[in-house]
């Protein structure tokens, strides 16, 4: 079958189309014919080797962290799915590979596709929807009346996080560029800060949670708008010791990770708030929690552009160069 492979860590020149063997289907696996997959910044970071210390993949590697498709085979221990089912998933971190014609996914990482969405729309959601859920529900335990700031509210993650936060009954602020302010308001944000002309630290204060996908100085500034006991959750780094432990890193790597985020954690401690790094995990159960919100229209996908499968490399370049105006970029196999 056809797939797009990373032959070695580096840049766009290290990725190519190739013919690879059909996936092996284990007892608990579901073989899915992929109709669509989406491109995430994580794909580019892995291709470039940014995570090779934490995620030691064996190369060559098929990238792709989101998919929607149809079940074509099930393992003997599979109980939740049958041939012909329409599904969507973020495969487990050790079993990525959605830039291909077929993929074997563990049944625990898979969920029935939302009935109201096309395959293209469904493929745009799993990674970002799970990230938003794990940040806001699982880690921050947000409740009605809380105040949440979502950075990059028109982006792939931000556009879903704004809608999820609003569905949870919280007061939502978001940052966005001038051209995207109205879109983010339409997604449900109560306040939108135009980062090109406004400073969010001068306009926002007393927030319970900040979801930061930018890192660096933006994260440092975000700590200051939290109320005492508030949480900043970052998906762009720096990583923290809990992340290193979760991945089973060796002691030397744990020390290195602790050093990377030490300054941020010290600043957070001085302000009476906390910072944690989130590397999302696959979960079919959480997708099943999200699906009713999607089918009810409380979370709608924002798709910037769809590329044909043969143009997967161009889709990667489009994302890497920041050309996407809002939401996700999707690759369609059909």
Quick recap:
31% of the residues lie in helices and 26% in strands.
Gross morphology is globular
Mean pLDDT across all residues, rounded?
A: 95
Show unreliable segments: none
What's the Cα radius of gyration? 19 Å
Task: Spell out the CATH superfamily of the largest domain.
Answer: Medium-chain alcohol dehydrogenases, catalytic domain
Describe the overall structure:
- The protein has 2 domains: 2-124 and 301-332, Medium-chain alcohol dehydrogenases, catalytic domain (Quinone Oxidoreductase, Chain A, domain 1); 127-277, Rossmann fold (3-Layer(aba) Sandwich).
- The mean pLDDT is 95.
- It is 31% helix and 26% strand.
- The relative contact order is 0.16.
- Helix 3 packs across helix 4.
- Strands 3, 5, 6, 7, 8, 15 and 16 form a 7-stranded mixed beta sheet that branches. Strands 11-10-9-12-13-14 form a 6-stranded parallel beta sheet, with helices on both faces. A 3-stranded antiparallel beta sheet has the order 2-1-4, with no helix packed on it.
- It has helices spanning 41-48, 119-123, 126-139, 156-167, 181-186, 200-203, 216-223, 241-246, 251-260, 262-271, 284-295, 312-320; strands spanning 2-6, 15-19, 29-39, 61-62, 67-74, 86-89, 102-106, 110-112, 147-150, 171-176, 191-194, 207-212, 226-234, 274-277, 303-308, 328-332.
- It contains 12 helices and 16 strands.
- The protein is α/β, with parallel strands linked by helices and 334 residues long.
């Amino acid at each position: 079958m056809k797939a797009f492979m990373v032959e070695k860590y580096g840049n766009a020149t290290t990725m190519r189309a190739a013919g690879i063997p059909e996936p092996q289907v284990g007892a608990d696996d579901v073989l899915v014919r992929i109709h669509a997959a989406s491109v995430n910044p994580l794909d580019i970071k892995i291709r470039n080797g940014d995570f090779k210390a934490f995620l030691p993949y064996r190369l060559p590697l098929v990238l792709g962290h989101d998919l929607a498709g149809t079940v074509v085979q099930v393992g003997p221990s599979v109980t939740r799915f049958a041939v012909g089912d329409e599904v969507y998933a973020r495969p487990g971190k050790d079993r990525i590979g959605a830039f291909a014609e077929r993929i074997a996914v563990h049944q625990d990482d898979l969920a029935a596709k939302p009935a109201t969405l096309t395959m293209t729309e469904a493929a745009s959601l799993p990674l970002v929807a799970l990230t938003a859920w794990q940040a806001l529900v699982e880690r921050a335990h947000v409740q009605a009346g809380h105040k949440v700031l979502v950075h990059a509210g028109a982006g792939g993650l931000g556009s879903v996080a704004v809608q999820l936060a609003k569905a949870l009954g919280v007061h939502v602020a978001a940052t966005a560029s001038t051209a995207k302010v109205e879109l983010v308001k339409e997604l449900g944000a109560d306040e939108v800060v135009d980062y090109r002309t406004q400073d969010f630290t001068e306009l926002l204060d007393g927030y319970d949670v900040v979801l930061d996908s930018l890192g660096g100085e933006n994260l440092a500034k975000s700590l200051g708008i939290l109320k005492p006991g508030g949480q900043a959750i970052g998906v762009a780094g720096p990583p923290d010791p809990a992340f290193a432990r979760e991945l089973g890193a060796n002691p030397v790597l744990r020390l290195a990770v602790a050093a990377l985020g030490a300054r941020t954690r010290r600043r957070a401690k001085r302000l009476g708030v906390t910072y944690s790094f989130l590397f999302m995990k696959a979960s079919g159960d959480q997708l099943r929690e999200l699906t009713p919100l999607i089918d009810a229209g409380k979370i709608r996908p924002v798709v910037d552009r769809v590329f044909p499968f043969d143009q997967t490399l161009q889709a990667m370049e489009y994302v890497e160069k920041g050309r996407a105006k809002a939401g996700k970029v999707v690759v369609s196999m059909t």
